[in-house]
Amino acid sequence: MLLNSTTFPTPTIFFPPTSSSTVQRANYLRSLPFSPSPVFLSLQILRCSLTDEILKVKELEDLPEQWRRSKVAWLCKELPSHKHSTLTRHLNAQRKWITQDDLTYVVVHCLRIRENETSFRVYSWMVRQHWFRFDFALATKLADCLGKDRKFSKCREVFDDINRNGRVPSESTFHTLVVAYLSAPVDGCLEEACAVYNRMIQFGGYRPLLSLHNSLFRALVNNGSGVSSKQFLVQAEFIYHNLVTSDLAVDKDVYVGLIWLHSYQDAVNMDRIGQLMEEMLSAGIPQSKDVLVSIIRAASKLSDVDEVEKTWKKLVELGTGIKPPATAFVYRMDVYGKINQPLRSLEIFRSMPDAGVPYNVVTYQKIIEVMTKALELEQAELLMAELMETGLKPLVPSFIALMDAYLKLGKHQNLESTFNICKSKCTPPNRTVYNLYLDSLIRTEKYEMAVELYDHMNINGAIGTNARSCNIMLGGSLAGEDYGKVEEIFETMRQKKYDVEEAYMEKLDYVLSLRKKKIARNSVSLKLDQEQREILIGLILAGGAQIETDYESHMRNNRNSSNNSIQFKFGHDNNLHSLLKVHIHERFHEWLTEAEQQQQSITGGDITPRNEFSTTNHSVFDFFEKQFWTKGRSRCIVVPKLIHRWVTERTLAYWYMYTGMRTSSGDVVLRVSAGKRECMERVVECFQMRRLDCKVKKKGKSHWIGLQGCNASKFLELIDPFMLVHDIQQTN
Q: 382-403, pLDDT tens digit by residue?
């Protein structure tokens, strides 16, 4: 359900500014416009006093003995210059005499000189000691300093430690943690920032500053495109609700962003958009170009031509210096296409130059899509030729729309020629294009060519097959009575857990009964094949595959049961990662979660997988968890001693495709996700066994393997048979 400004009830609990003293806040509570119960009043005053704790640190001269003062001073001087392992050894050596007061002084001293990393390590060592007593003020001070230094993971550890000790973190801790998450360009940080913000209000009872509301809202609407940001609508509505109920000024960007998010929803709520427009106008904020374009987008989704044209008129009348954006033309073309007026869409497309708006690839794609859906193929072909002459890319969506129209009309020769043009102009190859051509070959009874094309798709990792490919080929094999091919395809579908189309079930059952086999979809025993193992090791070394362990389920159920799964992660702005993502998703399809498989089966597998997806929990992944990861919750990747036996040319190829790059001079560079010295020695051994000389260099927290000259050429020759794309000039 979409949220509106009346969804949340008016809060009945008021919290005074946290900068006030405990006495002032207690007086504030007593002066509220209602009569709180004694229990309520006592709890609120207690909460105020708990967050008012002052950090008490003994000065160095106040420590009792001279030798103690000397040793503490030595620790303050020595610890910041050491790495984690050496620092831990130094602290372990002081166990006989050191106390919490001593280490509290060390932590605070390091914070004063801005050695926040050292402070965190000393604090982490201190909390593991048997004599440690939780100090809320110290934890708050440390968390705030770490957050201001943008160390969001370490700040979160201290934040969680405060919660585990039954305390509510201070408002400053919540604030700095949210800002630290927003400042980190790491996937998942925005979701964590939203979760901490919500806890700050609902659990902590705080009222964030206006700047925090605006910063989080800005991050939500600036998170890529509208398609990727639309999932944050509920969170954006919650921020808007908090701004209104806190009597804070609602900025123009908040109204614009909220209407923008609503316009991208699958189910558009025009009533809510109208309500936001009224509130914006009542606040004295005029309608801007962005707001009008959002309304056109929303009305186009609802096929509301009148609203689209009315808003378009307002957009044109904004001023002579403001040109309508190309997206507004796209939405107008789309709405006329939906009501079956393709020529009107073409007229809008041709009017763009007169309005001073140049054509772009999106406008070409939309008008070709409208024309092909209306089966106006003559105009679509002219537009396609015009698009190819401009040199704009990508061309694949327009080729798919054109080929789909040819398939519907039975123009198989035109489809074949379009397929050949697409294959020559578009790289890497597209699976949907191949599926359309495969379907055409089956319909024209060119069975041998269809078998050859299907086998080529299977062999070529850049294309691959999905549920739709298998069903098309299965139908052709059943029609051609090639029962050996039927059995082969059905076995593939059974292993991959693809659904057989209902139209083929009866005949398939008959064919398998002739061979004394029954359809048993759920009797497959999952097992990694050799190729999957090699791919998995390559992605683990590159950092693209990680083990996820469900610890709570592991403790709740049998501890000997498997709770390990593999999580694949791919970059959103990397073309090679986009290709690799589709290939890995298809190659490990039988291992994916049921929800992921159902989503793919609905569309025949033609939708693009998410940048992150996981497998189911299975015992087969226990081997990788034991070999490649350290034990415990704070785990890191390690390279096992026998890695030289498991690394193959295919492993190196997937490692290179995920995180490698080729420099302008022809050298090859690979990033290694493991960071310890002995791990790097084992990795180097893998290359030396293939007579490849390499160099290791550490840059930041990452290690890089470099191959130069003839070693780089030999490396590329080794991995060439397993590459999805052979010409790679990438900078991951």
A: 999 999 999 999 999 999 999 9
Contacts of 470 (CB under 8 A, 6+ apart): 489, 492, 493, 496, 498
Say whether both 542 and 677 belong to one domain: yes
pLDDT reading at 42 higher than 80: no
Q: Any idea what the CATH number is for the domain that residue 490 is in?
A: 1.25.40
Closest listed residue to residue 311, CA positions, set 339, 326, 291: 291
Residues 605 and 487 in one domain: no
Q: Is the pLDDT of residue 634 over 60?
A: no
Summarised one tens digit per residue, pLDDT across range 284-334 is 999 899 999 999 999 999 999 999 999 999 999 887 677 899 999 999 999
d(CA 231, CA 248): 25
Q: How many CA atoms lie within 13 A of 724 on its CB side?
A: 28
Residue 727's pLDDT is what? Answer: 56
Q: Can you give the CATH number for the domain in which 677 is found?
A: 3.10.28.10
Q: φ and ψ at 265, to 5 degrees?
A: -70, 150
Instruction: Give CA separation, 443 vs 439, 483, 501, 503, 625, in Å.
Output: 6, 18, 17, 15, 48
8-state DSSP, 637: B
Q: Are strands 702-707 and 668-672 parallel, antiparallel or unpaired?
A: antiparallel
Q: What pTM does this model have?
A: 0.76
pLDDT single digits (tens) 154-172: 999 999 999 999 999 999 9
Distance separating alpha carbons of residues 262 and 541, to the nearest angstrom: 41
Domain-located, residue 662: yes
Domain finish residue from 523, 552, 575: 523
657/590 same-domain check? yes
Do 503 and 539 fall within a single domain? no
Q: Is 48 exposed, middle or buried (0-12, 13-18, 19+ CB in 10 A)?
A: buried
Question: Of 523, 554, 569, which residue sits at a domain end?
Answer: 523
**543 and 459 together in one domain:** no
Domain hosting residue 519, numbered range: 432-523
Number of domains in the chain: 3
650 with 535: CB under 8 angstroms?
A: yes
Same domain, 515 and 552: no
Q: Are 236 and 258 in contact (CB under 8 A)?
A: yes
Distance separating alpha carbons of residues 440 and 418, to the nearest angstrom: 12
Q: State phi, psi for 697 to the nearest 5 degrees.
A: -135, 135
Tokens of 698: 């550490």
| Domain identity same for 550 and 697 | yes
Virtual CA dihedral for 190, 194, 195, 200, nearest 10 degrees? 140
96-107 average pLDDT score? 89
Distances (CA, A) of 710 to 298, 625, 648, 670, 693: 58, 36, 20, 16, 9
Condensed to tens digits (0 to 9), the pLDDT of residues 644-683 reads 889 999 999 999 999 888 888 889 999 887 667 778 888 8
Phi, psi of 567 (to 5 degrees): -110, 120
Beta strands in 555-680 (DSSP E): 564-569, 612-614, 661-662, 668-672
Smallest CA-to-CA distance from 336 within 327, 325, 348 is with: 348
